[in-house]
Amino acid sequence: MKAIIVEDEFLAREELKYFIKNCSSIEIVDEFEDGIEVLKFIQQNEVDVIFLDINIPSLDGVLLAKNISKFSKKPYIVFITAYREHAVEAFEIEAFDYILKPYSESRIISMLKKLEMTFNHENVSLHNNPISNKINLWKNEKIIVVDMDDIYYCAAKERITCVFTKHEEYSVNVSISEFYNTLPKDKFFKSHRSYIVNITKIREIIPWFNNTYNLRLQDIDYEVPVSRSNIKEFKQIMNI
Q1: Are the beta carbons of 6 and 56 closer than 8 angstroms?
Q2: Which of 125, 203, 235, 240 could in theory staple to 172 by disulfide, Cβ–Cβ 3.0 to 4.6 A?
Q3: Dihedrals φ, ψ of 112, to 5°?
């Protein structure tokens, strides 16, 4: 896991480096004091996490994070700051965490453990074997190997994706769009911005409001919506 630190106070930067090096396996690849320099760096270099102060020269941390949030592959943002008042704004752009100065050792260590666990979770979850048709999902802190043919539908829930089989619910710590990219398109269709459906599990196609559909699935009492913007593609797939 590769990280950069963006902090213009030398002592604060050194303290943070100490915790990262001694309490995690995260690799610090560079350090910055200026927001514009960070933006230039991450446009050419891929990192997994940015430890970001808010009060930095050229481009403050919040504006920098807003720019980064538009990247196709977004690193985790951990704000490290003395300013409480930006917390709401930080989480609106889906910051991973918001740590206040002066640092609490237990708080920093807890954040680092959570960060590594989330990163590992995400990478394991996205790894599947196309030959065996298996995919790794999570349930009760365990990795469960699931046959993709057993998946009925998936639903977005905040920053994770819930995956449903006939009897079980699992999760993956990625967006529903990222998870959709790991699934075979001959069986799975993203019917709505918050839903993926296994088209082999559709039992009934029910006309709904505004020329949309609801999809009633086999064996389970649940209906998956098809949004208006996806109707044309859905009709082509289903030969309607």
Answers
A1: yes
A2: 125
A3: -65, -40
Record the tokens describing residue 35, joined without a space. Answer: 């927001």
pLDDT in tens, the chain (240 residues): 899 999 999 999 999 999 999 999 999 999 999 999 998 898 888 899 999 999 888 888 888 898 887 776 789 999 998 888 888 888 788 889 999 988 889 999 999 998 988 887 766 555 555 546 888 898 887 888 899 999 999 999 877 899 999 999 999 888 898 889 889 888 999 999 999 999 999 999 999 888 899 999 999 999 999 999 999 999 999 988
Domain 130-238: top CATH class? mainly beta
Residue 24 structure tokens: 């995690």
Q: Quick check: helix, strand or coil at residue 39?
A: helix
Q: With beta carbons less than 8 A apart as the criterion, state whether 191 and 224 touch.
A: yes
Domain coordinates in residue numbering, the chain: 2-124, 130-238
C-alpha dihedral sign at 77, 78, 81, 83: positive
- Backbone phi and psi for residue 147, each to the nearest 5 degrees, phi listed first: -75, 130
Long-range contacts formed by 130-134: CB under 8 A, 24+ apart: 130/184
Are 195 and 180 a contacting pair, CB within 8 Å?
no
Q: Comparing C-alpha atoms, which of 139, 191, 128 is closest to residue 167?
A: 139
State the pTM of this model.
0.55
In CATH terms, are 2-124 and 130-238 the same topology? no
Residue pair 192/226 in contact (Cβ under 8 Å)? The answer is yes
Token pair for 117? 């666990």
